[in-house]
Design brief:
Blueprint (H helix, E strand, L loop, with lengths): L3 E4 L13 H9 L4 E3 L6 E5 L3 H11 L8 E3 L15 H10 L4 E6 L15 E5 L4 H10 L3 E2 L14 H8 L5 E4 L10 E4 L6 E4 L5 H5 L33 E4 L2 H8 L7 E5 L12 E4 L7 H17 L5 E5 L8 H10 L2 H4 L3
Parallel strand pairs: 1-8, 2-8, 4-6, 5-9, 11-14, 12-13, 12-14
Antiparallel strand pairs: 2-3, 3-7, 4-7, 5-6, 9-10
Bound molecules: threonylcarbamoyladenylate and magnesium ion.
Enzyme class: transferase
Keywords: ATP-binding, Cytoplasm, Nucleotide-binding, Nucleotidyltransferase, Transferase, tRNA processing
Pfam families: Sua5_C, Sua5_yciO_yrdC
Length: 347
């Protein structure tokens, strides 16, 4: 399959200036797959009403079919068709954070979306992205768009056009080219089908930010039985680069693990203020400015992980792990999935 590329960067402030939008619209309406930029990561968009389009999403990604997709909308009115109830607290959160990097799991109103999109669950995850290109496209197409991250299943999520192209060229109908995703990690997923609400996947909107808007405490990840997958996606190995990655909290810890071994094929992924102290032969890769720069680390993490596999001069990496807090929950969750389990757990 030939994958078309549309570079819409010059039109980001007003997509209607682009002469051939109807082609994109047609492809979505007819069940084709087009990847699109969002502020979190690039998504692989498909018409959520079309059973075969959604089946193709799972095939193109190589994703297990019991892992449900998030539905992307441009207006809250669209939710009336497929959400049976919006709790008052969820409405407050939508008012505060939409459009933006948070998805809500809500009770499903059956019969509108195709069955495959929910993986058989009676709930549905919904999100309204803020990205200028992504948002305008959703408006233009005016359909509920199912959009998982536009990567092969098990690979790090894509934050640039190149990442999407690398994984999915030849497997989907098209890719819309935008800039690097601003947030860099997937949206927060908040399960609103239970009280207290529960973080099913941490993201840029933190538990603390959510609690500042509503009057209930939110259940953080890790507060429930670890063996029970919260979001179904959590049970699969995710986000992993080929290069083995070990999380450390200091440079000394990396040095102790390295022992007498040479540093020449090793990357140290650390905040910039560590650069002058790294061993001569190691490759320094910048994670962010300093230990307080969580936003920068979120923005860079997937790009750094993609870079590791692209570089033949690196065969292992140590990455700086942040201390646990609401703000670092998202980056540490992704980093732990990217890290090599046996090494990270010291087994
Ligand atoms: O930022 C994002 O959310 C990106 C961009 C493209 O919008 N999308 C994304 O989709 O990350 P995906 O499919 O890669 O991740 C969706 C996550 C999975 O962990 C899935 O298991 C969970 O949301 N999920 C979706 N629907 C669910 C449901 N009804 N109940 C529980 N978990 C659900
Ligand atoms: Mg994903």
């Amino acid at each position: 399959m030939e994958t078309k590329v549309w570079d819409l960067r010059p039109y980001r402030d007003d997509l209607t200036r682009y002469p051939d939008l109807s082609e994109i619209q047609q492809i979505y309406r007819q069940g084709g797959l087009i990847a699109l930029p969002t502020e979190t990561v690039y998504g692989l968009g498909a018409n959520a009403l079309d059973e075969s389009a959604v089946r193709h999403v799972y095939e193109a990604k190589g994703r297990p079919s019991d892992n449900p997709l998030i539905i992307h909308v441009h207006s809250e009115d669209q939710l009336n068709d497929f959400v049976s109830h919006i709790p008052a607290d969820t409405q407050k959160l939508m008012d505060a954070f939409w459009p933006g990097p948070i998805s809500f799991i809500l009770p499903l109103k059956k019969g509108y979306l195709c069955d495959r999109v929910t993986g058989g669950l009676d709930s549905i995850a919904v999100r309204m992205p803020s990205h200028p290109i992504g948002r305008q496209l959703l408006q233009l197409v005016d359909l509920p768009i199912a959009a998982p991250s536009a990567n092969l299943s098990g690979k790090p999520s894509p934050t640039t056009f190149d990442h999407v192209y690398h994984d999915l060229n030849g497997r989907i109908d098209g890719i819309i080219q935008g800039d690097q995703s601003e947030e860099g990690l997937e949206s927060t997923v908040l399960d609103c089908t239970q009280v207290p609400f529960r973080i099913a996947r941490p993201g840029a909107i933190t538990a603390e930010m959510i609690e500042s808007v509503i009057d209930q405490q939110v259940e953080r990840m890790g507060m429930v039985d670890q063996d029970r997958p919260i979001a179904p996606g959590m049970k699969y190995r995710h986000y992993a680069p080929e290069t083995p990655v070990t999380i450390v909290s200091t440079l000394e810890e990396a040095q102790a693990l390295q022992g007498d071994k040479e540093w020449s094929q090793t990357a140290l992924i650390f905040p910039d203020n560590y650069e002058r102290d790294i061993p001569d032969q190691a490759s320094f890769i910048s994670l962010c400015q300093n230990e307080q720069d969580i936003k920068g680390a979120n923005h860079n993490l997937y790009h750094v992980l993609h870079q590791l596999d692209a570089r033949s001069d690196i065969n292992q990496a140590y990455i700086f792990g942040f201390k646990p807090s609401d703000e670092t929950a998202a980056i540490m969750n992704r980093m732990e999935k990217a890290a090599t389990p046996s090494v990270a757990k010291g087994e």
